[in-house]
Design goal:
The protein contains 15 helices and eleven strands. With 387 residues, it is an alpha/beta fold. The chain has two domains: 127 residues, Enolase-like, N-terminal domain (Enolase-like, domain 1, 2-Layer Sandwich); 238 residues, TIM Barrel, CATH 3.20.20.120. Bound molecules: calcium ion.
């Protein structure tokens, strides 16, 4: 079997209301779906992290840079393909967009392997350690509105009402504003819901430390990306100074990037983004590296239903750390803000929100070979943009 084609599908639409995080506000929703086609008709789906112009740039890397390197290769030779592409692009970027583009291709190769074997991805990864996964609701994105505190409180109550037992909110407006937001959310959900805050590297360590001390009093479970991903010393200092978990890793790439993060004890919770760091092939190395240092891994999930399905398999196949009769379960990050590409992209939707509502925040494993998904072709065609 040979790789016959590699295609990128960039889908976009405009949101009714802008959404933001500490770095920017945006109105365009994007999904970048990568498709690898074989000469005997089996094809696989992957997703590459990055929206807007980043997705269009990554599409060019997928189709014009990676595609010619791997046409004609055996799609089952995932390691060989990964290393060929990485080695040839190493001089042009060991992080960032080349790795995001490679991620989409690599994930599609794993989907193909599962389809050939007739087995779900988690079986290829060694089997499921659990038959259900707890999900946490991500929402409360920043908006330029005068009543943001009230909006956050109302949205937090809504996410709790959807059945989630844990949730994550954006911060990064400045320490005083952030504290008001977190206090309002904690007040709205009570003390029994797990709460995480995400600063998207808005702060220096000197700014983040006193803020973290306030968050500890509010029972925040983790403080995500408090400082810039390059600031490893800042991460380390926060881990040592605070009792709360410091989380990060979504902006890191490859085993070599994560090696430095993990060996430096820079995070208490590692959040690898498989659609960005190098795909499933590289994720497995990163996960095992973290576990070798007894650092728990809670995958970063952002994107379309393809990415959500992928992560359900990865979380099913996550070994318990350190192991025991009552292990802490790795959570599925689930974005609850409006996104047609999460809820409407698949021929058969994943039904995560229905399951969360019915099962107290838990979701079952996906069925079907590979990722176990197929796009709704008409829906995908409607939102595909040229580029
Ligand atoms: Ca984040």
């Amino acid at each position: 079997m040979k790789i016959a084609d590699v295609k990128s599908h960039v889908l976009m639409y405009r949101l009714d209301e802008e959404l933001g995080y500490s770095q920017q506000y945006y109105t365009m929703r994007t999904a970048h779906i990568v498709e690898v086609v074989t000469d005997d008709g089996v094809s696989g789906l992957g997703e590459a992290f990055g929206g807007g112009g980043v997705a269009l740039g990554n599409k060019a890397i997928v189709e014009q840079t990676i595609r010619p390197l791997i046409l004609g290769m055996d799609p089952l030779d995932r390691e060989v393909i990964w290393h060929k592409v990485y080695n040839l692009l190493r001089d042009h970027g060991q992080k960032g967009m080349p790795l995001q583009a490679l991620s989409g291709v690599d994930i599609a190769l794993w989907d193909i392997a599962g389809k050939i074997l007739g087995q779900p991805l988690y079986k290829l990864l060694g089997g499921a350690f659990r038959d259900r996964i707890p999900a946490y609701g991500y929402g409360m994105m920043l908006q330029r509105v005068p009543d943001l505190v009230q909006r956050f409180a109302a949205e937090a109550a809504k996410i709790k009402g959807m059945g989630f037992g844990a949730m994550k909110m954006k911060i990064g407006l400045g320490p005083e504003e952030d504290l008001k937001l977190v206090e309002a959310v904690r007040g709205a959900i009570g003390d029994d819901v797990k709460l995480m805050v995400d600063a998207n590297h808005a702060y220096t360590a000197r700014e983040a430390l006193p803020l973290g001390r306030q968050f500890e009093k509010l029972g925040v479970y983790w403080f995500e990306e408090p400082v810039a991903p390059e600031d490893r010393q800042g991460y380390r200092d926060l881990c040592q100074a605070l009792d709360m978990n410091i989380a990060g890793g979504e902006a890191e790439f490859s085993r070599w990037g994560f090696r430095d993060l993990v060996e430096g004890r820079c995070v208490d919770v590692l959040q690898p983004e498989t659609c960005g760091l190098g795909g499933v092939t590289e994720y497995l190395k990163v996960r095992d590296l973290a576990h070798a240092h007894f650092i728990p891994v809670v995958n970063h999930v952002w994107g379309s239903a393809v990415c959500v399905a992928l992560n359900m398999h990865l979380l099913a196949a996550m070994p318990d750390l350190p192991g025991g009769a009552h292990p802490v379960q790795p959570m599925l990050e689930y974005d609850t803000t409006p996104n047609l590409f999460r809820e409407n992209l698949l021929a058969e939707p994943l039904g995560v929100l229905d399951q969360v509502a019915a099962n107290g925040g838990w979701v079952a494993l996906p069925k079907g070979p590979g990722l176990g998904i197929a796009l709704d072709p008409e829906f995908a065609a409607r939102y595909r943009v040229a580029g």
